[in-house]
Design a protein that fits this description.
Signal_recog_particl_SRP54_hlx, about 450 residues, 434 Repressor (Amino-terminal Domain), 8-stranded mixed sheet, Rossmann fold, hydrolase, Four Helix Bundle (Hemerythrin (Met), subunit A), 8 strands, binds guanosine-5'-diphosphate, ribonucleoprotein, Signal recognition particle protein, GTP-binding
Length: about 450
């Protein structure tokens, strides 16, 4: 989501990094940071206030007289990014997936969640994603098809409900109204003993009075515990502006930003909290029902700064696969004992985790590589690497250092590949294992944070 801003911020930091630091070149670097924010379509006022806070701290004596001023500056930008995204820079405990707690689901009785947003924002799909997440927590959920505006929405919700085995409450649109469907839907959910009811309300192509009136009526009649606004990240500042209108009408409790997988700028994600004051709860990361992630400001800020997001990757893996095996891999990484046998095992899992490109973006140092050449077929590369590792003996995988010229040639022949490719793999692996060890020991970012405090 933050591809371009990450590159630009890295440029700004490397220009700050060159030569001796003084107030003038820090200010110059800060100009580049500001430019990066604006090019990412961050709201103008938000960017201005952000830069004011960062610059004040960055040109202070504390930075200039410190041992590593450029690291301090990254630390300041990081802290301010976390605050901008609505987080606490000290937060280190992350919930692994979208949770009912984030949605404000109560422990007793029925929780009513009202979803709203413009047509095409991904509201109906997101209702399905939430129902899936709640089902994973074993919460009985009812979906209410109250989007009578878009004729296909009712059927779409019914299909999603069918896939998830979650009940969908619907009425004949010819003889009902959105308010009536919602009211009856909540009644029905209460009677059936459900714990959560999600109202998929109508959208419009634009914010208009009719829509707002309708939403306010539903709000009055159904008294939702949570009003969630669904916005399409790809619409940038338009998403932020309509969030203001919805918040004025409804007092939103949270925002879910969809299609972050297709958004290369990240302007809505960076501005929506600061402009509306409403927390960003989850992000949509794909069309399928598992494409929903918890939003963590600290983690997102690390991703923006190109620090990678190993944590999300590992958590994602933990959710889908055997926890023990992964813990084992994590422990080995931290101890520097992660060998090619482990790597090969992980590769099989990685293939199932999502596209190679999106995974690489989360690995520190590899993000840029994923952007390099869109024509490179990552999955093919992965198979190629897998073939080379398979041609090694288990002992060679454990101790790749012992692979000499003749062994290398044998492996290349076995894998139908070139000795130079074997060499490259061994070199890359060495670099990667070192980087992973650093990350697993939770180094860099935290050290930078400490340097600032
Ligand atoms: P609604 O009119 O707001 O109910 O929108 P829909 O739920 O029908 O979604 C509109 C389109 O956006 C559909 O094609 C969805 O598959 C797609 N969509 C929704 N969320 C995401 C997401 O997080 N990523 C991607 N890539 N597509 C999404």
């Amino acid at each position: 989501m933050f591809d371009s801003i990450t590159g630009k911020l890295n440029d700004a930091f490397s220009s700050i990094n060159r030569g001796r630091l003084n107030e003038a070149n820090i200010r110059e670097g800060m100009k580049q940071v500001r430019q990066a924010l604006l090019e990412a379509d961050v709201n103008y006022d938000v960017a201005r206030d952000f830069m004011k806070r960062v610059t004040e701290q960055a040109v202070g004596d504390k930075v200039l007289k410190s041992l590593r001023p450029s690291e301090q500056i990254v630390g300041i930008v990081y802290q301010e990014l976390v605050l901008l995204l609505g987080g606490d820079p000290r937060e280190s405990e992350f919930s692994p997936r979208p949770t009912s707690a984030e949605l404000g689901v109560k422990r007793d009785g029925l929780t009513v969640i009202m979803m709203c947003g413009l047509q095409g924002s991904g509201k109906t799909t997101t209702c399905g994603k939430l129902a899936r997440a709640l089902k994973q927590e074993k919460l009985e959920t009812v979906l209410v098809a109250a989007d009578l505006q878009r004729p296909a929405a009712i059927e779409q919700l019914k299909t999603l409900g069918g896939q998830l085995d979650v009940e969908v409450y619907a009425e004949d649109p010819a003889s009902s109204s959105p308010v009536q469907v919602c009211r009856n839907g909540v009644k029905h959910a209460r009677k059936s003993g459900a714990q959560v009811v999600i109202l998929d309300t109508a959208g419009r192509l634009h914010v208009d009075d009719d829509l707002m009136r309708e939403l306010r009526q539903i709000d009055n009649k159904c008294a939702p515990d949570s009003a969630i606004y669904v916005a399409d990240a790809m619409t940038g500042q338009d998403a932020v502006n309509s969030a203001i209108a919805f918040n004025d009408a409804l007092e939103l409790d949270g925002v879910i930003l969809t299609k972050t997988d297709g958004d290369t700028r990240g302007g809505a994600a960076l501005s929506i909290r600061a402009v509306t004051g409403v927390p960003l709860k989850f992000i949509g990361t794909g069309e399928t029902l598992d494409g929903l992630e918890a939003f963590h400001p600290t983690r997102m800020a690390q991703r923006i700064l190109g620090g990678g997001d190993m944590g999300t990757l590992l958590e994602k893996a933990q959710r889908e696969f055997d926890g023990e095996e992964l813990e084992d891999a994590q422990r080995k990484m931290a101890e520097g004992k992660f060998d090619l046998n482990d790597f090969r095992k992980q590769m099989g899992m990685i293939g199932k985790l999502g596209s190679m490109r999106s995974i690489m973006k989360m690995i520190p140092g590899m993000g840029q590589m994923a952007d390099l050449d869109p024509n490179v077929d990552m999955e093919k590369e992965l198979r190629h690497v897998g073939g080379i590792i398979d041609a090694m003996t288990p002992d060679e995988r454990r101790n790749p250092d012992q692979i000499d010229r003749s062994r290398r040639n044998r492996i290349a022949r076995g894998a139908g590949s070139d000795p130079a490719d074997v060499n490259k793999l061994l070199k890359d692996f060495k670099g990667m294992a070192g980087a992973m060890q650093g990350i697993s020991q939770k180094g860099s970012m935290r050290d930078r944070m400490k340097a600032v405090q």
